[in-house]
Each structure stands twice: as C-alpha cells, then as structure tokens.
Amino acid sequence: MDLFGRIFNTVSAVTNLFSNPYKVREVPLSEYGNCSCIQEDGRVLLYRNRTAKSLDCVLVNPISPQNAYRLFQLDSEHEALLRFQEYAVKLRPFYESSRKGLRLETIQQLTDCIRSHPNWSLAHVAVDIGLRESFKHNGILRSLNSTDCDGGSTPLHLACKKGDIECLQELVEECQARQDIADQNGETVYHHAAQQNNPRVIEILCSVPSVGINHQSNNNEAPLHVACRMGKTESVLALLRCQARCDIIGKDGYPIHTAMKYSQNGCAEAILDVSANQLHAEDPRYQATPIHWAKNAEMARLLIQRGCKVNTRSKTSDTPLHIMVKRDRFEAAMVLLTNGADPNAKGEHGNTPLHLAMKKDHLELIKALMVFGADVEQHNDFGETPGLIAARSSKGCEP
User: I want to staple 259 with a disulfide (CB 3.0 to 4.6 A). Which of 87, 102, 268, 313 is the partner?
Assistant: First the structure.
C-alpha cells in the first residue's frame, strides 16, 4: 500500500472513531439546558438536540449531578426511542448498585454488551463486565440462573469460561448459583471449568455439593473426559481431588482411554495415581485396554512401567502389538517388543503382527519383528504365511 493510501486509511479510521454515535462521552448537563427532554426513566434521559439535529440519551452522574454521560447521539427518532427504552431498563440495576458510581469505561462496556447481546440476561451482562457488586441487586438476582445466552449458558457457565475467580466466588459462595443446569450441549459448569487449566475454578465449584461434576454431556463426555481430551492436567488433578469418577464410560471409553487417544501423559498419570485398576479398563467398543490405545513410545512406556499386560487381547483377539503395526506406530511397537510383547501372537483372522506388517509393506516393522523372533512361516486363518503375503506385495519385500 502506498503512502497516500495509508494516510487515507488512518484518517478514515480516526473519523469513524469520533463519529461513532454510540461512543460514550462525559458532558456537562448544562449543555442540554435549551433542549427538550422527551423521555425520562430513572437517571436515563432522552433529549431532542435541535442544534445537532439529533436525539441524545444521557445517564446522569449521581456522584457529580452537574455532569452526565452521553450514551448515544442518533438521527433516527425511532431507533433512539427503542434504544432509550432498552438502556433505561437494563442499566438501572448497574447504576443503582454501584456505590462509587459507574466509570465512563464501564458504561461503554455495558452499552456495547447490551447492544451486542440483546438476548442476554442482566446477570450474563454483569458477569461479562465483571460487575460483582451488582449481583445482589434484585434486577440481577432474578436472572442468576438464566439460560438466556449463547448456547443456553448460565451466568455461572460464562464465569467459568472467562476464568473470573472473583465472579465465581461471588456467584457460588454468596449467591448460591445453581451448578446442575446444563447448556444446549448438555454441559454443566464443570465441563466449562475442565477446559481451563486453572484448578481454582474447579475448587470453587466444588466448595458446594453438586452432581454436575460427573454429569455427561450430549457428546457423552463427563468433565473428566473433557479435561483429558484437551490435555488440561491441572484440571484433571482438581477434578480427581473433588471425587470425579474415573469409571464413567464416554464415547471413547473411560477417561483413561481419552487420555491415551490424545496422548495426554500427565492426564493418564493423574488417573492412574488415584485409580490403578484403570490400567486394565476395557473400552466398550473394542474391549481394548489403555495400552491398545497408546500412540507413541512415551505413552506405551508409562503404562508398562505401571504394570500393564503387554499381551492382553481386545474383542478381536488383537494384542497391543497388532494395533501398533496396523496404525504404523513404530516407536510404540518397539517399546512393546522390548518389554515382552509376543511377535507371534495370533489376532483377528489368525494374523500375527508380521502378517500385518507384510500387508502394509512396512519395512522397518518387518525387520524389527523378525529380530524379535517373528515366524515367517506361520499361517493365518486363510492359510497365508507372512512370506506369501510379501510375495504378493505390489512392491515386493525381502524377508
């Protein structure tokens, strides 16, 4: 972009900034001495400004009554009347509950939020701006458990998403906001807290008894599944301290299976520290144990060090080694082989890991399996030996 283009864009941006009709400004109330007030509701007034040929909405400053905050300056009377009615109702709980009076920056945030989220309850607006002192105002309290927000979230959901500790404490400990309400995805506040890596959020929620900690969403996930999927180790630890259950079956199995699927080492360790029997937990679909789900050497090594069985079988009779070969997980396969995995175990259709490696023409795995004693003459259920499969390979493979 040339110099003149940049200058033009800069000037345009500045012009737009100062011409924003909703930019809140502090003005002397005397400025409206010759203007007619056509609407008044509490401290919010609407003037017809004949000089500027506009309708101006102002909020009288209770700390300095000679001053006001101009909330908007609009040309359209219809728009001005609608916006005035909205502001008059929605701003009242905030200016009435503010002991020191609202600052200009706060008023700007409030009006922007009210316009951007017209369907939000006032409690949602209060949480979004962080106006804790307004929580006990009757106008806010009545919507404390409202789901009038994006996705059916409550104000407490929103506070968890934002990680606002002070708002959370006020809502949970002082206002007794409900924790068992699920949003449109079936998620409670614990699901949202699990996505953060701030254990304090979960600890505050757990300070009040609630069933939400083990609630399963529409996606069949408990909060512990969510934390494991996202690798939020601190959240996993906090959930476990708060007695979150490890034995809840989700879409992929138990939380330990989720941790393995997403290679979340810290999450898997945390679960095994409190529930060692999860080492042998079988998922509902494949009846596979966590070691079947290992995707890399680190995860396989973790489970082996904890005492898992390296030759355990899934519903299809596949051992973890079969899965590593099928999924081309060479490093994990090597960890298994060096820790006693049977290279000649027969799995689905009587295939050994070597049969599978030959079918995939995976030279590195073929060599490793043979080094560890894989039998090239062993037959599967179709009478095929690994050598025969190699001979049929389009690329060919030398044993």
Answer: 268
What residues contact 299, with CB distance under 8 A and at least 6 apart?
260, 263, 265, 268, 293, 332
What's the Cα-to-Cα distance from 261 to each of 174, 180, 265, rounded to whole Å?
40, 29, 10
CA distance 24 to 69: 6
Residue in 306, 294, 220 with CA at minimum distance from that of residue 263: 294
Q: Which two tokens stand for residue 352?
A: 């050994």
92 membership: H or E segment, kind and range: helix 77-97
pTM for the full predicted model: 0.86
Name the region of 150 (left: φ>0; alpha: ψ -120 to 50; beta: rest): beta
The Cα 371–Cα 40 span in angstroms is 88
Strands ordered across the beta sheet of 54-60: 25-28, 67-74, 54-60, 44-49, 36-41
Q: Give the tokens for residue 112.
A: 């922007």
Cα three-residue angle 359-343-393, rounded to 5 degrees: 15
84-116 pLDDT, tens per residue?
999 999 999 999 999 889 999 999 999 999 999
Task: Read off the pLDDT band of 391 (50, 70, 90).
Answer: confident
Q: What angle do CA 28, 33, 38 make, to 5 degrees?
A: 105
- Helix ranges, 187-251 (H): 189-194, 199-206, 223-230, 233-241
DSSP state, residue 173: I
Closest CA to 114 of 148, 91, 96, 133: 91
- Would you give the distance in Å from CA 297 to the centre of its chain? 28
383 closest CA partner among 373, 392, 370: 392
Cα–Cα distance, 160 to 179 (Å, whole number): 11
Mean pLDDT score of the chain, rounded to an integer? 93
CB 320 within 8 A of CB 312: yes
DSSP 269-329: HHHHHH-GGGGGPPPTTT---GGGG--SHHHHHHHHHTT--TT---TTS--HHHHHHHTT-
Q: What is the dihedral of CA 252, 253, 254, 259, to 10 degrees?
A: -30
Residues sharing a CB contact under 8 Å with residue 3, sequence separation 6 or more, in sequence order: none
